[in-house]
Design the sequence.
């Protein structure tokens, strides 16, 4: 199996490459075509990733560029207006110019935040993604969605700002805590369900080496997810046709669970795992898929140590009310991404409340 891969993202003049290679962080300077003409680089990272990864990138770039390393607190609260203001002020004080490249070294929080800073400062700076969590490597670093949260709404302030390139070094996953790794695997499973039944079957057959974080299978899984996401993004970059919404399979349920549990109980991928099962159960109840679909999905998520059942005690009305604030709501209708078979999903608002309530009350 190849140990390094390049995945193109085709977006006309904004096209770029995702380069996936073990031990590539230290040779980031080989990607200099991504920041042609820049004399300065700003690396944005968090305190968990700074040592060794962001420092390693800083050292590798220091021969050619003046490098500034900006470190924020780890975690979702850093995707805030307060952190954005602090970073803008820092860039101003540093005296960077309009060709300065911004590099995100971290998980999805850092990618979204640094991308937002790159999109907005001086009306836009070149941007490079160096994702270090599995979720960021298979999902958030690809496709150009960047942004921050407001206290009452996640990801509500942002932009589409494509990176010049994405560099993925799977070796950094060695230090990712197990729950964070498993959370990323939920998004990996999602791609199989929504777009690629063969990939789903491949995951079923390779779950053990994936759980063991073996390099070859891991590179294959990351590359396949990036290819599948790149296909969707190339077709509907700005989520205009609705096609990009298929990436939100399971997410309407997941966001409702995250909201009702006040973001304290589940990591995003854990909520997505439960949400995908609920979407499958809803589709099964509506006669769109058979029972085998749901049981294969549950089985794979279980092998990846992910939850498949919502906790007892969640209030159905609160969940439905949270769903009505979902970003996919159009003309007052909640839209669901529902499967028709493994490898294919559809966006629909044709869901009876009775069916939805029945699924939200299901335990098991
Ligand atoms: P995260 O960035 O908070 O990273 C998870 C944790 O792992 C953090 O504590 C981080 O410091 C740590 N970490 C990261 N890499 C590490 C490594 N190699 N070794 C040790 N620790 C490491 O969270 P995440 O799950 O990566 O991303 C979640 C964010 O991504 C959310 O804000 C979500 O909204 C966003 N997201 C964006 C998109 C998009 O398309 N832009 C898509 C999905 C999710
Ligand atoms: N994670 C959803 C998207 O990128 O559109």
Sequence:
């Amino acid at each position: 199996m190849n140990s390094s891969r390049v995945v193109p993202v085709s977006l006309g003049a904004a096209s770029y490459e995702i380069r996936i290679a073990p031990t590539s962080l230290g040779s980031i300077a080989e990607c200099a075509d991504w920041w042609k003409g820049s004399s300065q680089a700003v690396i944005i990272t968090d305190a968990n990733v700074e040592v060794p990864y962001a420092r390693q990138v800083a050292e590798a770039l220091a021969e050619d560029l003046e490098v500034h390393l900006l470190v924020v607190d780890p975690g979702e609260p850093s995707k805030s207006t307060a952190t954005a203001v602090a970073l803008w002020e820092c860039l101003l004080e540093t005296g960077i110019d309009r060709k300065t490249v911004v590099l995100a070294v971290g998980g999805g929080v850092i990618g979204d935040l640094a991308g937002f800073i790159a999109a907005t400062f001086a009306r836009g700076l070149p941007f490079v993604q160096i994702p270090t969590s599995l979720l960021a490597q298979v999902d958030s670093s690809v496709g150009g969605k960047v942004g921050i949260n407001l206290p009452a709404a996640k990801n509500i302030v942002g932009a589409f700002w494509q990176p010049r390139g994405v560099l993925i070094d799977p070796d950094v996953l060695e230090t990712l805590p197990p729950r964070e790794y498993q959370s990323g695997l939920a998004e990996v499973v999602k791609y199989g369900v929504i777009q690629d039944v063969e990939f789903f079957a491949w995951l079923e057959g390779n779950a053990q080496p994936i759980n063991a974080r073996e390099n070859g299978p891991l590179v294959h899984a990351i590359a396949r997810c990036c290819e599948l996401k790149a296909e969707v993004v190339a077709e509907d970059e700005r989520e205009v046709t609705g096609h990009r919404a298929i990436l939100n399979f399971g997410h309407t349920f997941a966001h409702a669970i995250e909201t009702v549990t006040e973001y304290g109980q589940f990591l995003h991928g854990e909520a997505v795992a439960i949400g995908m099962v609920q979407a499958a159960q809803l589709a099964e109840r509506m006669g769109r898929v058979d029972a085998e679909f749901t049981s294969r999905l549950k089985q794979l998520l279980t092998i990846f140590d992910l939850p498949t059942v919502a906790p007892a005690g969640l209030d159905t009305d609160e969940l439905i009310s949270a769903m009505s604030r979902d970003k996919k709501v159009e003309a007052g209708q909640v839209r669901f991404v529902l499967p028709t078979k493994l490898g294919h999903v559809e966006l629909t608002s044709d869901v009876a409340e009775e069916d939805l309530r029945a699924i939200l009350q299901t335990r098991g």
